[in-house]
Structures are given as structure tokens and as C-alpha cells.
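Bumping my old thread because nobody answered last time. Still need a sequence for this structure:
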């Protein structure tokens, strides 16, 4: 039996061994020799040279090329720099799409993959995970800190203020899916995420003031803040739309629990609400509805607690209330 080609081996590593598009995406990016190196990782450059019977300098050049294309990641160890391949399909997606020299065909292949193959893989990955990898952060202006407990990892402005380093990258989902005109250069990278972005050249460093301006821009555009689902600062704040986001599209279409909600939910003051429908228009998740001449009503099981309905309400009739304990956020 002939050995599986390196491109198909990589698809198998991404838990998608039968994918037609992952191998094609990879072929757009690298040579056959580089693909063999990629699926042979992890290891140091010297270890890879010995394993593949190639010169160390050639291996180093290929590893650096893979790094700048979002296909290899490095970490200092006692034995030297250890290189590894993407750990999963989401890391492959998010890192590779920020490859600055990508041809148009590359983005088209990613778009087709996300439309045709990703919806079949995502439910399997969701079953394997005890909790979603990401969660929603409410828009800060939608929450009254005098009435509810707002934790540091769910306060986007506090996350930015506590960061040691910040960078911004384009939104990988909107780069490929291109279904709306929402701003693209809005995904914030924090601390280690910023270090990686700046070293690789896939984004640019920003000040805290610039980061806060980006957040304000995304809130005005109706985008939803998303971060790592853990009780800490995390490495990123994505600002997502419901039409391009690899997670939200499946959550909306298939009710797939691929992103956790925030700890908050909107509460409507029916005495103030005019029933104008602005909140309904701003909600990506069909979680708030307005009937004729009636106040807005929240559909609780659909709500992710993003706060976009609250900040858009012209009567200020909606405020976010705390509906989950602090322990809802995983340690």
C-alpha cells in the first residue's frame, strides 16, 4: 500500500482526513518538501534534518517560511527551539489566513471549505470539548457595574488596560467569507498573542488608546466581542459578525453550542420600550423580538448576552442583568 501523501496526512492531523479542500489549501501555500517537513513535526531543526536527511540550513529556512505562513509554531526548550504544526483546524484557519502574500485562490478555497466541509466537522469537535473554546464578552456600556458584578475577564476595557502588549490583525473570517462590510482590521491580540503577531508580521502593534478606539468602532458596527473561555486575560479579543464568523454562523443556523454566552442577559423595561424594533435589527441571534405595538421580548435560550441590543436602544429601555454565577467562566 502506498504511503498517504503529506497533504492528506495534514488533513488527517486536523481531524478531517477525508477533506478535499484542506490538501488544496496547503498546496497553495507550500512545496511538497515543505509539506513532508510539516507532517514530520514536532522537533528541532537539527532533529528534522536528521529525520528527513536534509541540510540543517535548508530545514531552518523552510521552518521560518512555514512560521510566516502560519503553519509552524516555535517554543524555546532546553534542547533548543521546538517547532510544531498547528494543533487543530481552528489554529490552522486563524493563523494561515493572515499570510500576507496569499493568492486569491487561497481565500476562495478557505471560503469553500467553510461553506461545505466545516459544518460537518464542527459538531464532532464540539462533542469532544467539555466547554466551548470561546465565550462572549458583553459590551461594557450595556452593563451597569453599580448593579451587577463585572469580572475582569469579562470587561473588555479592563482586559486592554491590563495588557502588557497589544496588536491588531484583520478578522480571518471576514477576510475569507466577505459577506458584509463590517470593519476588518479589528481583532485584538494580547500579550503572547501580540508577541506572536508582531514577530510574524501578521498584524501591527497598537497602543491601549488605539485598541480602545478599535473596540468603540466595533461596538458601533454591531460586532460581538469574543475571547478565550477562561478566567484570565487570554490572548485575543475577536469582534465577530453573525454572517462570516466560523462559530456564529453554525450557532445561528444549527444551534450548535460552539461559543459560550456571557453571564448576562438583557432585561427590557416594558414601561419605557416603544417597540421600535432597533434591538431586533441589531441582534445577530434572533434572540429578541418585537410584535406590533408591543414591547421587546427576550428569547432566553437564543441569547448570548452580547449587549448589542442594549447599547442600540434609543429609549435606553434595555439593561444587561447577571443571570449566571462567576463560576460559569472556567478556570
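Sorry it took so long. Here it is:
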Amino acid at each position: 500500500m502506498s504511503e498517504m501523501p503529506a497533504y492528506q496526512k495534514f488533513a488527517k492531523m486536523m481531524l478531517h482526513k477525508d477533506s478535499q479542500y484542506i490538501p488544496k489549501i496547503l498546496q497553495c501555500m507550500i512545496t511538497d518538501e515543505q509539506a513532508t517537513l510539516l507532517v514530520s513535526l514536532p522537533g528541532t531543526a537539527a532533529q528534522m534534518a536528521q529525520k528527513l536527511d536534509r541540510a540543517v540550513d535548508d530545514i531552518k529556512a523552510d521552518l521560518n517560511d512555514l512560521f510566516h505562513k502560519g503553519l509552524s509554531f516555535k517554543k524555546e526548550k532546553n534542547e533548543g527551539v521546538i517547532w510544531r504544526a498547528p494543533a487543530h483546524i481552528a489554529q490552522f484557519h486563524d493563523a494561515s489566513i493572515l499570510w500576507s502574500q496569499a493568492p486569491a485562490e487561497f481565500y476562495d478555497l478557505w471560503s469553500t471549505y467553510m461553506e461545505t466541509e466545516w459544518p460537518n466537522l464542527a459538531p464532532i469537535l464540539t462533542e469532544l470539548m467539555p466547554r466551548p473554546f470561546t465565550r462572549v464578552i458583553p459590551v461594557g456600556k450595556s452593563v451597569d457595574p453599580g448593579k451587577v458584578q463585572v469580572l475582569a475577564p469579562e470587561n473588555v476595557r479592563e482586559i486592554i488596560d491590563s495588557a502588557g502588549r497589544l496588536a491588531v490583525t484583520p478578522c480571518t473570517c471576514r477576510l475569507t467569507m466577505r459577506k458584509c462590510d463590517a470593519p476588518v482590521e479589528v481583532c485584538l491580540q494580547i500579550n503572547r498573542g501580540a508577541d506572536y503577531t508582531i514577530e510574524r508580521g501578521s498584524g501591527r502593534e497598537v497602543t491601549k488608546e488605539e485598541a480602545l478606539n478599535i473596540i468603540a468602532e466595533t461596538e458601533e458596527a454591531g460586532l460581538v466581542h469574543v475571547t478565550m473561555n477562561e478566567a484570565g486575560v487570554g490572548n485575543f479579543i475577536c469582534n465577530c459578525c453573525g454572517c462570516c464568523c466560523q462559530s456564529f454562523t453554525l450557532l445561528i443556523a444549527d444551534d450548535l453550542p460552539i461559543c459560550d454566552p456571557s453571564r448576562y442577559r438583557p432585561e427590557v423595561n416594558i414601561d419605557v420600550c416603544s417597540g421600535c424594533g432597533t434591538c431586533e435589527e441589531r441582534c445577530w441571534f434572533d434572540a429578541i423580538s418585537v410584535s406590533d405595538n408591543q414591547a421587546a421580548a427576550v428569547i432566553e435560550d437564543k441569547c448570548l448576552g452580547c449587549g448589542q441590543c442594549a447599547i442600540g436602544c434609543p429609549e435606553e429601555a434595555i439593561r444587561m442583568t447577571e443571570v449566571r454565577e462567576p463560576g460559569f467562566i472556567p478556570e
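The CA atoms of residues 235 and 256 lie 24 Å apart. Let me know if any region looks off to you.
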